[in-house]
Amino acid sequence: MTEILHSVKAYLYDNALTSDPDDYVARVNSERSLTSEEICESAVSRGGADISQASMLHGTKLFLKEMAYLLCDGYSVNTGYFTATPLIRGVFNSPDDTFDPERHTILFQFNQGDALRNELSSIEVQIMGVADTGLGISQVTDIKTGSVNDQLTPGRNLRIDGHKLKVAGDDGNTGIFFVNQSSEEETRVDASDLVINNPSELLIIIPELDAGTYKLKVSTQFSRGFLLKEPRMVLFDKDLTVL
User: Fold this and answer.
1) What pLDDT is recorded for position 34?
2) How does the average pLDDT of the chain come out, rounded?
3) Which of 7, 51, 147, 214 might form a disulfide with 151, Cβ 3.0–4.6 angstroms?
4) 50 and 156 Cβ atoms separated by less than 8 Å
């Protein structure tokens, strides 16, 4: 029997893909996103690494930089823990058609490898009950690239999935915003660029943002078909990047 070494907590959410009111899907309650610096520090303090955190971090950055360079030359990568490969999306209209950035996208696809897959049997999953489904963002998808919870393409569509997201109310603080993580400047999505405005799905046109890292913020007075006196706000926990 495999030894249980890890524990993951998850909450249950209504399964929006079926009409059954009594079935749910589980979503992992992630503690937070770890940086390369923090992982290397853990390897030294917990994992018994025989080099310093600084040395390990230096080597990690060199590895990732070289991996990215080789991926850009069309190589696939298999680290054992994950695989990565360049991927082209879009339809080519004839055998003589060429790559067109307006119709085609190149991106990188990552999947779990055997070494990481083998760790799954050592994880205990604790279901914490049905989640408090207040205002929340579960996932964002950059329509141009297909990137999930990662990349932003200014001037193109972004789909925002979640619950109780419908933007409504006359308070000046309601709306959809991108918060630059360096300058803390907020860029509001123009009301005319809100294409779909449903409780479970928003579709927007991304503003002309400068290159950088952003947080997505949604603020609304909507709640179960009526308007609250004060807006509620949710800040998506994933960093989104404009290249």
Assistant:
1) 86
2) 92
3) 147
4) no
119-149: per-residue pLDDT in tens? 999 999 999 998 766 788 989 999 998 899 9
- Determine the Cα–Cα distance for residues 231 and 174; give it in Å rounded to an integer: 6
**Shortest CA distance to 11 belongs to which of 160, 94, 127, 169?**
127
Q: How far apart are CA 190 and CA 211, in angstroms?
A: 19
Query: How far is the C-alpha of 4 from the C-alpha of 123, rounded, in Å?
Result: 6
Residue with tokens 């996103």: 33
pTM for this model (two decimals): 0.67
SS3 of 21-54: the string is CCCEEEEECCCCCCCHHHHHHHHHHCCCCCCCHH
pLDDT of 1 above 80: no
Query: Residue 133: its pLDDT value, please?
Result: 64
Compute the distance between CA of residue 224 and CA of residue 199 in angstroms, rounded to an integer: 9
- Integer Cα distance of 151 and 188 in angstroms: 18
Sort strands 6-14 and 82-89 into parallel, antiparallel or unpaired.
unpaired
* Residues 36/54, Cβ–Cβ less than 8 Å: no
How far apart are alpha carbons 183 and 166 in whole angstroms?
28
Q: Measured between alpha carbons, how far is residue 128 from residues 9, 27, 125, 132, 172 in Å? A: 7, 10, 9, 11, 36
- The DSSP string of 76-107 is -EE-SSEEEEEEEES---STT----TTT-EEE
Amino acid at 55: S
Instruction: Quickly list DSSP for 160-228.
Output: EEEES-----S-TT-EEEEEETTT--EEEPPGGGEEEE-SSEEEEEPP-PPSEEEEEEEEEEEETTEEE
Tracing tokens 């991927």 back to the chain, one arrives at: 87
Residue-wise pLDDT for 219-233, tens only, equals 999 877 778 888 999
